[in-house]
Amino acid sequence: MKRVAVVGAQWGDEGKGKVVNYLADGFDWIVRFAGGANAGHTIYVGDRKYVNHLLPCIVPGGRGRGFLGAGMVLDLEQLANELTSLAQDFPGIGTQFAVDLEASVVLPWHKQEDVILEGMRAEPIGTTGRGIGPAYTDKASREGIKLCHLFDERMLAERLENTWNLKQNLYQGRLTMSPSEVVSTLIQLRDRIMQLGVEFTSAVDMAEVFHGTSVLFEGAQGVLLDPDFGTFPFVTSGSCMAHGVSSVGFSTFELDDVAGVLKAYTTRVGAGPFPTEEDSDVTRDIRERGREYGATTGRPRRVGWLDLPALRYAVVRSGLTSFIITKADVLNGLNCIKVCTGYRVAGNVREIPSTSHDFFVAEPVYEELPGWPSTEHVNFLKYMTFIEEQVHVPITHISYGPKTDEMETKGSLIMGI
Ligand code: IMP
Questions:
Q1: For a pocket test of ligand 1, which of 57, 78, 221 has the largest count of ligand atoms closer than 8 A to its C-beta?
Q2: What is the pLDDT of residues 26-72, one digit of tens each?
Q3: pLDDT tens, 290-310?
Q4: What is the pLDDT of residues 179-204, one digit of tens each?
Q5: Is 41 part of the annotated catalytic residue set?
Q6: Distance in Å from the first CA to the final CA of the chain
């Protein structure tokens, strides 16, 4: 049974949604294992565009079903709205999804806390404001609510009351929604999601199903935003690595392939180190041509050149076994493409950063490669070969446009050149 994980190899926004959607038809299950509505995974069905924040990027009406795993933090209002809007075009689509009762709930006050904390930080992280940090904090500090608690209303009310008292002390009474309002909102949302056909289950009950079927794991954000290995503290709070599949009961040893999605250049949204960032006419043009504005927040993304040390780091940290390159078409027409091949840290050039701190102090060392007029040009092939030789991981697919079918294997691209 095929097991593949797709994870972001950079700072997120690499195009994982599109890649997962392209691969989805070959799998029985498409599983999101971490993150929440901070993600914005764009898919196309024909000419229609959909942005999934929580739902896995299944093919609507296709063979694969979507599973939302225990490592996720779920904003139930967002989930219900996402399902409702998809159901307008694909009636009954809710039945194509199941969710783990062990997943955590993003409570209304988590979003308030997110905004309050950002406002108080000396150096704001630039969060998406979706309550992600506070929801994961509550999980770690054991104050959080899990989906299974929504089926025991007495316990839910008690836990929310206790947590609310604790938080009102911490936040000096600034949280607006009362525990009883939160209880009734959550129960209504639970019922709405069930009416939409979503199955509430658990990875325990699903274990046999999963082990007898093919599974595609859909990562969120990117390795460099991972709280353990990314550019801490400018990271998100959920796992961005392939090892996040453990929250669904899998081990990384069971994966046949860990595909890292990389953009032909680099972007990052929010604050934090970004060694190859460049603010020039060329990169501003790349931002426009690549529509580099956040799918969740609409913020303009910071733009820079491809960063090979960062990719090597992602390969080691997340055990990447292949790459899928996206948005190569955005660089079409440039005379020269810069690529960072090393980091100068404390006077020495390193091929790979050894700690996340290196990203804060690195000076990028560049090589320049000739550009290409289109991705069918031999110079683009040379660019891919250069990346593969430098990073020692094969590129298997190339995506050259936002639509699902604007993607092909490297083999077929080479045949066409
Ligand atoms: P949070 O996940 O909302 O707490 O945001 C923490 C950091 O991760 C911020 O810099 C966000 O911009 C960034 N971030 C979170 N989700 C995404 C994503 O899906 N793509 C790119 N950046 C993200």
A1: 221
A2: 999 999 999 999 999 999 998 899 999 999 999 999 999 999 999 99
A3: 999 987 788 999 999 999 999
A4: 999 999 999 999 999 999 999 999 99
A5: yes
A6: 34
